[in-house]
Write the structure tokens for this entry.
Amino acid sequence: MIGDLDLARTIVAWVFLAAGGFFLVVGAIGINRMPDIFTRLHAASVGDTFGAGLMLVGMMIVAGLSLVTVKLVFLLLFLWFMGPVVTHAIARAALEAGERPKLADGPPAESGNLATGEGRLSRS
Amino acid sequence: MVAAGLAAVLVVLALLVARALRGPTVFDRLVAANSVGTASILLLALYGFFIGRPAFLDIGLLYALLNAVGTFAILKFWRYGSLGGSGEEDEAS
């Protein structure tokens, strides 16, 4: 399926696939090296958004205008919409389970109310 | 070209499994599991291009839905202790 592409499309597809692969690897290394659950969540979103997105665009360039590209567009839209939703769900569940972000200057002040969403800044 | 992408996704899968084994809390493992799902979707799509059969993309599309729903199911089970109904607050730990 790659053999019948002209040189320009091959080069552009190579660039997108390579960039997508780079961001995927960066995201996975970030998940391994980050110190805390919340920073790991952020690294995972880099891999899911940029890595998967650029790789799928590269595949769309290889596929050209066909049904395969339509399915790839659906997959891309689904990943881009559900990524933040899943991130928010995991972050909220971690907060409610008692995990707190590991800050550089000690643990955060517990003066907000997690159930009502009220924070430190809304108190006078 | 597609083979290089496949190799990158396999490296990413190995790194994510390392985090899934290491992660001290269940949420670290859940993040790794969700990302393993996304990487396996990319693996399916790339493999479909590799062997010239685009039908593998349909499997990836379906697994994207299952991955999201599965993550929510694990979170709900962890929070409430059961998957049936969200009103049983007595099961919350």
